[in-house]
């Protein structure tokens, strides 16, 4: 047995599934006809657990597979920083600025990203998000700094 990516990712999925089941246990699941507040979270958590167990079994059965590489902290740090900054900036800087900061950090997280592509895709996705969330769903969030 090799400690492969499948084994590790399967264990992570299974852990998230178990955590979801444990956290949602106090919610009323109801029935399929009259779903309670815990129906979908519990169903989703069981699905994630099942997926994790299948992937873990594949990882255990594999005689060879993709080995786990060294942990690269740069992508992880930039993605977490971008998400945290998005959350902190949204109320004060608005959706447009917050998303552009998020996409900038996401582009910096990737080792082989091209800044021209990051800028163009960030602008297009920001326009899409504004159309969907501000105009389509009419969510009460500022589009620009207040």
From TrEMBL:
<feature type="transmembrane region" description="Helical">
    <location>
        <begin position="118"/>
        <end position="137"/>
    </location>
</feature>
<feature type="transmembrane region" description="Helical">
    <location>
        <begin position="95"/>
        <end position="111"/>
    </location>
</feature>
<keyword id="KW-0472">Membrane</keyword>
<dbReference type="InterPro" id="IPR009936">
    <property type="entry name" value="DUF1468"/>
</dbReference>
<feature type="transmembrane region" description="Helical">
    <location>
        <begin position="39"/>
        <end position="61"/>
    </location>
</feature>
<keyword id="KW-1133">Transmembrane helix</keyword>
<feature type="transmembrane region" description="Helical">
    <location>
        <begin position="73"/>
        <end position="89"/>
    </location>
</feature>
<dbReference type="Pfam" id="PF07331">
    <property type="entry name" value="TctB"/>
</dbReference>
<feature type="transmembrane region" description="Helical">
    <location>
        <begin position="7"/>
        <end position="27"/>
    </location>
</feature>
<protein>
    <submittedName>
        <fullName>Tripartite tricarboxylate transporter TctB family protein</fullName>
    </submittedName>
</protein>
<feature type="domain" description="DUF1468">
    <location>
        <begin position="8"/>
        <end position="142"/>
    </location>
</feature>
<keyword id="KW-0812">Transmembrane</keyword>
